[in-house]
Write a structure and sequence with these properties.
InterPro entries: CobU/CobP, P-loop_NTPase. Pfam families: CobU. GO terms for molecular function: adenosylcobinamide kinase activity; nucleotide binding. By secondary structure, this protein is of the alpha/beta class. It is built from 4 helices and 6 strands, in the order E-H-E-E-H-H-E-H-E-E. The chain has helices spanning 12-20, 47-57, 64-71, 91-110; strands at 2-6, 27-29, 43-45, 76-80, 113-118, 121-127. It has a 6-stranded mixed beta sheet, sandwiched between helices. Strand 5 and strand 6 form a beta hairpin. Helix 2 (47-57) crosses helix 4. The radius of gyration is 14 Å and the shape is globular. It starts with a strand and ends with a strand. The model has no long low-confidence stretch (mean pLDDT 96).
């Protein structure tokens, strides 16, 4: 599994297309993806939006990392970093931000590769 993170509008999706030879057809938008989609797609972008959708729909994220490693170990996962800036006043937004951060932390620990993209340039954080 490879985790690609970075701020909004930093070129993460284009970076993945170029660096890993992924086509648009192989990518799924997390805003539109269902829970099971993550276990079958080549690349899921807007992972943070997938988490938000899951919180709203009551998905159980327990064991997600282990299941991904077992069922979709070659997954390319693209997520915005949400932990910078002002802490949201809204309780749901705080939960969403914290949940996404914690899940990404677990995923990063188990991922083969973690890359942070800034201004379209990837910086390898981890390459096991």
């Amino acid at each position: 599994m490879k985790l690609i993170i970075g701020g909004a509008f930093q070129g993460k999706k284009e970076y993945v297309k170029q660096q890993f030879g992924v086509s648009e057809k192989e990518m799924k938008d997390g805003k539109e993806a269902e829970f099971e989609d993550i276990f079958h797609v080549t690349c899921l972008y807007h992972f943070h939006e997938w988490v938000k959708k899951g919180l709203k729909e009551g998905w159980n994220f327990e064991g997600l990392t282990e299941r991904l490693l077992q069922e979709n170990p070659r997954l390319l996962l693209i997520s915005n970093e949400l932990g910078y800036g002002v802490v949201p006043m809204d309780a749901f937004d705080r939960t969403y931000r914290e949940t996404t951060g914690r899940i990404c932390t677990y995923l990063a620990k188990e991922s083969q590769t973690v890359i942070r993209v800034v201004c379209g340039m990837g910086m390898v954080i981890k390459n096991a």
